[in-house]
From TrEMBL:
Keyword terms: NAD, Oxidoreductase
Keyword set includes Disulfide bond: no
Transcription found in the keyword field: no
One term under GO cellular component: mitochondrion
Gene name per UniProt: LOC105050327
Native organism: Elaeis guineensis var. tenera (Oil palm)
Active site: 267
Protein name: Aldehyde dehydrogenase family 2 member B7, mitochondrial
GO biological process assignments: carboxylic acid metabolic process
Domain of life: Eukaryota
Family membership noted in the UniProt record: Belongs to the aldehyde dehydrogenase family.
PANTHER family xrefs: ALDEHYDE DEHYDROGENASE-RELATED
Length: 499
């Protein structure tokens, strides 16, 4: 498959685009400006559809709808059980339409259809059922007081939540954001990534069919500096959640603080170490490290993008990592068995090729790939660099593409120091069966997720987020609920403290 011809033979996506407008107050509507923008097929760069381009005025309309739905609508007032049932019905509807949703996701994003259909959509369904389970279990507590007071702590929804998501897992990011916000009873204005607006519109329609009241979830397609910035700076938005790059995260935080000091959660970039110890079964280690980096075309914020390999197994690992990359099946993502589709767009494609050049220029040894695949679309050869040094750009900066960097180390303390010597702290991987080594590493690594003998395990109940410049706050799991709850202490004087 991994030939120029294979990436240029295209399969017609088995789905039609149905929704291209903005979703405001339960209705699909055009942008106030009437403007649209094209969303492209990453296999070819051709236009899939033109989508309404939301900007500040549409954000105003969407926030007004969300505000009204929060202040006056049924959503925060209905029983938690009823909210839970709507989320469960939504999950059932998505299950019915699994394959269409997956096809839309693959068409717009370029990821293998088998992964959309068997991983991403099922994970979104699982997430909705997980948060449906939480909806009626979110409650406060009564705490003891020193004086004659009865003290209750109430957990309330925050209000209107703004959410800005990226293009690498359009549906999963949608679910990570809306799940906890809805379970807690908030209303939402969500801006999708300009590269991948289609799948969120489709599933949001299903959520309304499941009974979501109008105005509770508003979806704006559009660009970051216009629609995104308007949402981050809006005075009527009570909380903002963002997943994307670290530079954009800094802008978002600034916009939030300059406007109304809305609390912000950020899930940002990474440069995660994947540490292969000397007791490793090299074949298994190669497979895991390959998955940790190449999964989703390398477009994962937590990608294991610094593969640290112990010197005792280094030579064997490098040979086998090269062989594995050369075997990786790149092709049309709708074709069965394809492991890697195109990168998301021209910008990312050029950026990744720039990093590959930088790797070669800085003296790393290119052992596989190194160029584009085919002459159309954004396919890149699975690329592996050996002999990478910590100070090289490819070892410090997030590449967000199918480029593995292998670094050699000789002892545990050294690898801890080097793995932690990054501004990022999103994830880390460990491959070892030595219990003491694993325990030392998992405690020493400064990362929000540590995967031991596995990688990229994204169950709904597992919290996900970063240390350091990889962000703050957690998505998924019960910790995510904290992002979307306001805490109220109610102190009541007791007339008769004896009772
Ligand atoms: P990437 O570089 O991978 O596209 P970004 O962090 O730029 O990552 O994008 C993630 C999300 O942030 C997208 O929805 C994008 O539109 C949005 N975004 C980009 N720039 C801004 C901005 N200045 N203000 C608000 N949102 C933005």
């Amino acid at each position: 498959f991994s030939t120029a011809a294979a990436v240029e033979e295209h399969i017609t996506p088995p789905v039609d685009v149905q929704h291209t407008q903005l979703l405001i107050n339960g209705q699909f509507v055009d942008a106030a400006s009437g403007k649209t923008f094209p969303t492209l097929d990453p296999r070819t760069g051709d236009v899939i559809a033109c989508v309404a381009e939301g900007d500040a005025e549409d954000i105003n309309r969407a926030v007004a709808a969300a505000r009204k739905a929060f202040d006056e609508g049924p959503w925060p007032r209905m029983t938690a059980y009823e909210r839970s049932r709507i989320l469960l019905r939504f999950a059932d509807l998505m299950e019915k339409h699994n394959d269409e949703i997956a096809a839309l996701e693959t068409w717009d994003n370029g990821k293998p259809y088998e992964q959309s259909a068997n991983i991403e959509v099922p994970m979104l369904i699982r997430l909705m059922r997980y948060y449906a389970g939480w909806a009626d279990k979110i409650h406060g507590l009564v705490v003891p007081a020193d004086g004659p007071h009865h003290v209750q702590v109430l957990h309330e929804p925050i209000g209107v939540v703004g959410q800005i998501i990226p293009w690498n897992f359009p549906l999963l990011m949608f679910g990570w954001k809306i799940g906890p916000a809805l379970a807690c009873g908030n209303t939402i204005v969500l801006k999708t990534a300009e590269q991948t607006p289609l799948s969120a519109l489709y599933v949001s329609k299903l959520l309304h069919e499941a009974g979501l009241p109008e105005g509770v979830l508003n979806i704006i397609s559009g660009f970051g500096p216009t629609a995104g910035a308007a949402l981050a700076s809006h005075m009527e938005v009570d909380k903002l959640a963002f997943t994307g790059s670290t530079p954009t995260g800094k802008i978002i935080l600034e916009l939030a603080s300059r406007s109304n000091l809305k609390p912000v959660t950020l899930e940002l970039g990474g440069k995660s170490p994947m540490i292969i110890m000397d007791d490793a079964d090299v074949d298994q280690a190669v497979e895991l490290a390959h998955f940790a980096l190449f999964f989703n075309q390398g477009q994962c914020c937590c990608a294991g993008s610094r593969t640290f390999v112990h010197e005792r197994v280094y030579d064997e690992f490098v040979e086998k990592a090269k062989a594995r990359a050369l075997k990786r099946i790149v092709g049309d993502p709708f074709r069965q068995g394809v492991e890697q589709g195109p990168q998301i767009d021209e910008d990312q494609f050029r950026k990744i090729l720039g990093y590959i050049k930088s790797g070669t220029d800085s003296g790393a040894t290119l052992i596989a790939g190194g160029d584009r695949l085919g002459s159309k679309g954004y396919f890149i050869q699975p690329t592996v660099f050996a002999d990478v040094k910590d100070e090289m750009k490819i070892a410090r900066e997030e590449i967000f593409g199918p480029v593995q960097s292998i670094l050699k180390f000789s002892d545990l303390n050294e690898v801890i120091r080097r793995a932690n010597a990054s501004h990022y702290g999103l994830a880390a991987g460990i491959f070892s069966n030595n219990m003491d080594t694993v325990n030392t590493l998992m405690r020493a690594l400064r990362a929000g997720s540590v995967f031991v003998n596995c990688f990229d395990v994204f169950d709904a109940a597992i919290p996900f987020g970063g240390y350091k410049m990889s962000g703050h706050g957690r998505d998924k799991g019960m910790d995510s609920l904290k992002n979307y709850s306001q805490i109220k202490a109610v102190v009541t004087a007791l007339k008769n403290p004896a009772w």
